[in-house]
Amino acid sequence: MGNINDGYGRDLDLNLLRVFMVVAEEGSLTRAASRLYVTQPAVSASMRRLATFVGAELITRQGRGVALTARGAELLTAARAHLEPLIAAATAAPRFDPKLSTATIRFGLADGLESVILPRLIAQLRAEAPRMQFIVLPVQFRTVEESLLSSKIDFAVTVADELPKSILRQPLTAHPSGPKAFVCLYDARFAKLPRPLTERAYFAQEHIVVSYAGDTRGIVEDALGKARTVRVSVHSFGYIADLVEGSPLVATVPSLLAGHLIRARPHLRAVPVPFSLEGARLELLWSRATDDDPAGRFVRDVVANVVGSLEGKSAKPLARSGAVRRTR
């Protein structure tokens, strides 16, 4: 057959080997054609092409059928040894056991989700996949596309704007909107907020905002066109509880995050903001190229169930398109 590199250069069609194996098993071009659901001339043409590639006759006429030549018998032995395992591997159902998997999964979490989601998520993953390894990285709507397309992460849980079709997306929460979607977080020992909170009382407070752009604008300024008295601007929700506790400063945060912070800090309180704010829904995002990875799919399912349990509902079905608005 010559050097194997020469063979690759001549573009061997592996389907020719499949046809050859069926011909050898049937001992007849006609019966092989019937089994392969092609015509007898097509089988004959395939055999001629393979013989040309090999440089030797592989079959010879024998009675009403065909028999292998010595070179054909040699090729059949080699083809069975290599082609049949390839076919079996290609057609076998994927096997994945999370209890035994040692896969490493890298995923991104939006700011503010680390303390809300991560402890429960890791606890469940340790119970169901004790040998897997997890690397958690920060992401946000400006960075998630590049992180996914460059394979820095396998999936992300965040909010996002428009994304290319190569990124799949599953909504984990509804669009947060209405007066209860966002709350004003404060320390009841230092800030006295009326209930219900009025717009006048809200704007009379001194505020902390989270701004990824490094300015003093946030979702309230974007939605209402009115500026708050901002004393502190930080780049992460991770600072909010420490700054609010023990001070008269207040912060406008998503209800899901506020509930978690209040449970950990008994002096903190939350009251719905006195106007409707529409934020961005939380989504699970991953590359289409990794959609069929069994380890990644397993972890994504666990994430969806954990977030669903936090909201008191099951995970939503897969949604592969649709834009969401960003929020700060």
Which SSEs are present, and which pair or pack?
Layout lengths: L3 H6 L4 H13 L2 H8 L3 H15 L4 E4 L2 E4 L1 H22 L12 E7 L3 H15 L4 E7 L4 H6 L5 E4 L8 E5 L10 E6 L11 H5 L2 E5 L8 H6 L4 E6 L5 H5 L5 E5 H10 L3 E5 L10 E5 L6 H17 L18
Parallel strand pairs: 3-4, 3-5, 8-9, 8-10
Antiparallel strand pairs: 1-2, 5-12, 6-12, 7-10, 7-11
Q: Structural class of the helix and strand makeup?
A: alpha/beta
Radius of gyration: 31 Å
Number of helices: 12
Could you give the order of strands across the largest sheet? Answer: 4-3-5-12-6
Largest sheet, in brief, is: 5 strands, mixed
Shape: rod-shaped
The SSE order reads HHHHEEHEHEHEEEHEHEHEHEEH
β content, as a range?
15-25%
What does this protein look like?
By secondary structure, the protein is of the alpha/beta class. The protein contains 12 helices and 12 strands. The chain has helices at residues 4-9, 14-26, 29-36, 40-54, 70-91, 114-128, 144-149, 199-203, 219-224, 240-244, 255-264, 294-310; strands spanning 59-62, 65-68, 104-110, 133-139, 155-158, 167-171, 182-187, 206-210, 229-234, 250-254, 268-272, 283-287. The protein has a 5-stranded mixed β-sheet with strand order 4-3-5-12-6. The protein has a 5-stranded mixed β-sheet with strand order 9-8-10-7-11. α6 links the parallel β3 and β4. α2 packs across α4, α2 (14-26) packs across α5 and α3 packs across α4 (40-54).
Salient structural properties:
328 residues, alpha/beta, five-stranded mixed β-sheet, 12 helices, 12 strands, 39% helix, rod-shaped, disordered N terminus, disordered C terminus
